[in-house]
């Protein structure tokens, strides 16, 4: 029997998920091409000149899928840590356990009152379903007090987009909604309420950062993964792809994890309708700032959110807490590390040194560092990560309804965080499963449950 030739673009979680499934099924007629000289995509990890390990942002491993759980088990074995999430929000002088709205008692009394009054009014009105955009949904769900204190400033930091230009359809389990009785009881009884969400417990590789999972996956089929192959053109009629080095390949089925707008831009014969739809897809970029310290930080905290504009990062992670081996020689008696994330718009060029200094000052102001720690910073790492968040704008779903069926008709499965362009299915487990299920669909017609999920 002749096997269809399957070509995979991108060695991130989705591409390697597809590759792993093909390998598992002993299907042989496939290749995977990756533009960079490493694997893992946005889930890759990098070691700096001082021996500190950094992820491309704050990744943690949690799952909705037994298949993904087993895969991680197979890739890491016993070489993992299991952690209880302890995350906080810094608001002014206050430290508030996550989620913010469930732990208002940590705020000054006047802010508590504002948040509770707004939440009571929102609960009485019950207008969330009628909201036409993300900003209106926040107001209708949480009330103006919580919105102004945290939801508006924090979400603008993350998305770098006016919230009224964003849809509300993407949230699912991403945002804890309000139970007013619970909010009020938590304040009156001074009760902590920090266990919400699917990542309240998570896993992390002992060695090599998050990227260790994907490096180990690629080692299962090294002859099939070709790095240094930047895609430059796709000819759907000829079923041929071309790379920047002048080489190319043919395919019967293409599983692409390239950003969807770039894929359309590279596609020979893409008509005006497709190009117009692709122009309605928006994203932002990420600056990862790493501080490697010659100082022991002993903490149970995992990550901290920042709403205030004075500190440019929206999140800081105690990365040495995830694994001792994220610092040189695993020596957490001597070293520690903090990893910070700053979103920026595509048209912006970040001033890295200025942002780093502002971030350090903000961490000192928040009490995460001391002034004397400036002299203990032995590594000042940065990495610009293009295509960080696929922004769920008001026009996104209409654009996808044009693009995805047209691509599938041409034998192209555009999948993954930026291939699907749906943030709500952009976690690692979702991304791996999109690759696995694309292969199952190609070979057996099985439903792509993750990609097709509402």
List keywords for this structure.
single chain; alpha/beta; FAD/NAD(P)-binding domain; 14 helices
Describe, in short, the structure shown:
Helices cover 33% and strands 22% of the residues. The protein is of the alpha/beta class and 454 residues long.
Write the layout of secondary structure elements.
Blueprint: E1 6-9, H1 13-24, E2 30-33, E3 45-47, E4 53-55, H2 66-76, E5 80-84, E6 87-91, E7 94-97, H3 109-125, H4 134-142, H5 144-159, H6 180-188, E8 201-205, H7 211-218, E9 225-226, E10 231-235, E11 240-243, E12 248-250, E13 253-256, H8 260-266, H9 272-278, E14 282-293, E15 303-306, E16 315-318, H10 319-322, E17 336-345, H11 352-366, E18 377-391, H12 396-409, E19 412-414, H13 428-444, H14 449-452
Helix pairs in contact: 1-13, 3-4, 3-5, 3-6, 4-5, 9-12
The CATH homologous superfamily of the largest domain is termed FAD/NAD(P)-binding domain
Gyration radius (Cα, Å) is 23 Å
> Whole-Å distance between the termini?
36 Å
The CATH C-level class name of the largest domain = Alpha Beta
Tell me which CATH architecture of the largest domain applies here. Answer: 3-Layer(bba) Sandwich
The mean pLDDT is: 94
User: Helical stretch count?
Assistant: 14
Description:
With 454 residues, the chain is of the alpha/beta class. The protein folds into three domains: 6-43 and 207-280 and 393-452, FAD/NAD(P)-binding domain (3-Layer(bba) Sandwich), CATH 3.50.50.60; 101-188, no CATH class; 282-391, Polyamine Oxidase, Chain A, domain 2 (Alpha-Beta Complex), CATH 3.90.660.10. 33% of the residues lie in helices and 22% in strands. The protein has helices at residues 13-24, 66-76, 109-125, 134-142, 144-159, 180-188, 211-218, 260-266, 272-278, 319-322, 352-366, 396-409, 428-444, 449-452, and strands at residues 6-9, 30-33, 45-47, 53-55, 80-84, 87-91, 94-97, 201-205, 225-226, 231-235, 240-243, 248-250, 253-256, 282-293, 303-306, 315-318, 336-345, 377-391, 412-414. It has a seven-stranded mixed β-sheet with strand order 7-6-15-16-17-14-18, with helices on both faces. The chain has a five-stranded parallel β-sheet with strand order 9-2-1-13-19. It has a three-stranded antiparallel β-sheet with strand order 10-11-12. Helix 3 packs antiparallel against helix 6 and helix 4 packs antiparallel against helix 5 (144-159).
């Amino acid at each position: 029997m002749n096997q269809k030739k399957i070509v995979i673009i991108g060695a991130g979680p989705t591409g390697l998920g597809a590759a792993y499934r093909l390998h598992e099924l002993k299907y042989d007629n496939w290749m995977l091409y990756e533009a960079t000289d490493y694997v893992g995509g946005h889930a890759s990890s990098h070691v700096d000149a001082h021996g500190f390990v950094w992820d491309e942002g704050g990744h943690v491993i949690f799952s909705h899928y037994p298949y993904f759980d087993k895969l991680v088990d197979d890739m890491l074995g016993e070489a993992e840590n299991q952690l209880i999430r302890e995350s906080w929000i810094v608001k002014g002088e206050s430290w508030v356990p996550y989620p913010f709205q469930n732990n208002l008692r940590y705020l000054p009394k006047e802010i508590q009152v504002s948040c509770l009054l707004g939440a009571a009014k929102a609960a009485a009105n019950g207008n969330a379903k009628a909201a036409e955009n993300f900003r209106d949904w926040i107001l209708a769900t949480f009330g103006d007090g919580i919105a102004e204190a945290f939801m508006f400033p924090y979400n603008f930091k993350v998305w770098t987009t006016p919230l009224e230009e964003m849809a509300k359809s993407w949230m699912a389990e991403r945002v804890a909604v309000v139970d007013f009785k619970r909010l009020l009881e938590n304040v009156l009884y001074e009760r902590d309420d920090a266990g919400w969400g699917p990542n309240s417990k998570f896993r992390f590789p002992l060695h090599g950062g998050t990227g260790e999972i994907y490096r180990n996956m690629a080692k299962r089929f090294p002859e099939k993964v070709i790095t240094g192959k930047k895609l430059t053109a796709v000819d759907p009629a000829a079923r041929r792809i071309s790379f920047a080095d002048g080489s190319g390949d043919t395919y019967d089925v293409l599983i692409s994890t390239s950003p969807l707008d770039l894929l359309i831009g590279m596609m020979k014969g893409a008509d005006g309708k497709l190009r117009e739809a692709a122009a309605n897809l928006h994203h932002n970029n990420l600056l990862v700032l790493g501080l490697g310290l010659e100082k022991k930080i002993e903490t149970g905290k995992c990550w901290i959110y920042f709403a205030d504009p004075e500190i440019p990062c929206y999140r800081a992670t105690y990365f040495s807490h995830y694994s001792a081996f994220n610092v040189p020689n695993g020596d957490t008696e001597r070293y520690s590390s903090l990893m910070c994330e700053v979103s920026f718009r595509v048209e912006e060029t970040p001033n890295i040194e200025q942002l780093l200094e502002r971030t350090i000052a903000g961490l000192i102001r928040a009490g995460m560092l001391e002034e004397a720690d400036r002299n203990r910073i032995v590594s000042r790492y940065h990495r610009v990560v293009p295509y960080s968040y696929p922004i769920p704008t008001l026009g996104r779903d209409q654009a996808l309804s044009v693009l995805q069926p047209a691509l599938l008709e041409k034998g192209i499965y555009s999948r993954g965080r930026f291939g699907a362009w749906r943030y709500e299915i952009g976690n690692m487990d979702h991304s791996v499963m999109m690759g696995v299920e694309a292969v199952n669909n190609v070979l057996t017609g099985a439903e792509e449950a993750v990609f097709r999920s509402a």
